[in-house]
Please model this.
Amino acid sequence: MFDLLPHLLNGLVLGLLLALIALGFMLIIGLMEQINLAHGSLFALGAYFALMLTGPKPPLPPDAAAFWLQIPLGWRYALALVIAPCLAGIVGIAVEVCMRRTYGKDPLYGLLLTFGVALVLEELIRLTWGTRDHVLPVPSGMSGAFIFQDLIWSTYRFYAAGMAAIVIGLVWLLIEKTPYGAMIKAGAHDSEMVRALGVNLSKLRLGVFVLGTMLAAFAGIIVAPIWGIRPHMGVDAVVPAFLIIVLGGVGSFWGAVIASLLVGLAVGVSGAYASEWSLLSMYLLLVAIVSFRARGLFGKKSMLEV
Amino acid sequence: MKKHGKPALGVPRRTILKGSLMTASLAGVGAFYGPWHHNRAFAQGKKPIKLGLTNDSSGQFGNSGQDEHRAIRMVIDEWNAKGGVLGRKIEWVTADTESSPAAGTRVAERFITREDCPILIGALHSGVANAITQVANKYGTIFLNTNSSAPSEAGENCSRIKFVWDGNGTNFSKAAVANAVKTIGKNWLLLTNDYVWGHSTAAATKALIEANGGKIIDNLLVPQNTRDFTSYLLKIQQIKPQVIGTAIAGDDNKALREQITQLKLDRPGGPAWINNQQDWPDVWGSPQSLFGVFGTSWYHKLNLPGVPEFVKKWQDANKDGPIPVPGNVSYNGYMATQELFRAIERAGSTNNIAIIKALEGHKMSAKDRMQHFDAYIDPDTHQVQQTIYLARKNEKPVDNTDHFEILSWTEPKDVMDDAAPTKCKLVPHDKVPSVDA
Model:
């Protein structure tokens, strides 16, 4: 049993990180009923913006850059956690404005549009930052090893899992415990009624999309020190995010979180005991669950099924 | 008045339809499957020779692919500056093979059939190299595998039209394994990238370990593009092997090295690491996480004649490049392309068979190759048999590019892949479709 425990713990940590990655995707697909295939590129953009702010070459005039670099890495990293998602949010505004013409139409239009946006963003990343890999610098207190009995663990993974848990909690509070959350859910359920009650639906959708974008960017920053930063890192994010949403059920917050934990456990445990099955295990899990529950674990009928 | 279904020639329409269908089917099958023996003659005379550069510019080997691309272009520029090859200028086209066999097939097919390239140069990912070989075989197009080091490339996947320029996994394992079993320990764990290079390198390493009295405790297969190695590192901590032999390549290797360093598993008291080969672009991307003993075919600070001049020349040609000094990857790209041009000049022809014959068995002096021992192109496998170096992290660097401490250099005969000649079956020259550039 002791042999299994570290792998279970590793699976849970991985699951929390996957939940963080899937959160923004879940918000947009669940509340706006739009499949945002640009989610991965926005995730990557967050990591690149953070790299720009924490790396040795900030895009500032020489004097300002010298001042910025004098700030301790810990503070620059903390600022990057706020500023980078905001910068990505601006990109999110532009994407949402483009998406408006697809609302209320066949979901395929939105899907194709966001697929195109993903390609454009990835190429822009290549043009701006090049094709090589980068490492996101993190404060020394967060990196290094954590030793428990015979096992050595990465300290950063605990930090990342903690941040993921906090963000999951905050998003849940927003959706379930605030009037904004109620409006968002109502807007997804019956947009005509919400509009009739005087809510500006365009602003509401814009807000949800920007929030989803910022969550994607935030996840990118948190995951970057583990995965590394590279132009196509978005693909590594959007595939499990999509899988988790289908597995958990479209529109279900807890469905997404539980599905993330299941995927994390499947990948973590199979990685240790049958490593060649580790990536395949999440797809096998999907096949197993969707075979019995076509709408996923907690899914309800969605407009996407029409 | 003609009857319906019976045309003027008196042949029933059904028969015509059947015949048309069969003809169309045959034509279709013919177009799809053959003829296998293509004989191609591109516009010759003083027209430029057009090379297809099949470099992985993105994906797992993107950094290395771009590095070899720079070196290949450098040779082309040098030869063009002195009048070209056989008085003909050299042109090139390139497309990203994306570290993906499917892309490799697509690019090779396009370069040969649409761009009329008689020669293809460039490979990192062994799956891509094999995919390009399949296409090049069909048309008799010469293919220089510059940097893919799977033993299978000069073994079961060898080809009369392909020449392999890098040391392979077996060469590097032979240089390192016997000594490691004797001096470090017998209990080994293998960490293997789950594709052709990883598998063939691990198989060669396993055979050498067992031949030297060692034991494989486990072989953990790592899917390509793995970024989070935590479950593997936890498993390693639980199994506690004495030595870990890795065959992880490209960006995967970089991520693995960083995570091992972060966990301090590279420190004394932990397992010893024998990392099959470290490509310079991967090292440059993360020099702080270099550890263990690893192989290479060249280093820019080798104390040999010609090395400083080559480094200076490379730097002048690549002022804006992301890596300030050449490494093994660009070295192999440079040497392969240079030897190709020399072979064309020796052959006095751009006919593929003549070039192949000029390359087979060709000897290259240590001085010319800036290595410790003479090298040659094995006529039985088409692999360049060359000096193999073992290195580790340099704790006393003389500058910020001096990351390796070279530990040993081994003669080609001592690291030969003995199994390759029995696995490699080259077709006779006259069975290769002829191509005139």
About this structure: Confidence is low (pLDDT under 50) at residues 1-13, 19-36 of chain B. The longest helix of chain B spans residues 13-33. The CA atoms of residues 277 and 295 of chain B lie 4 Å apart.
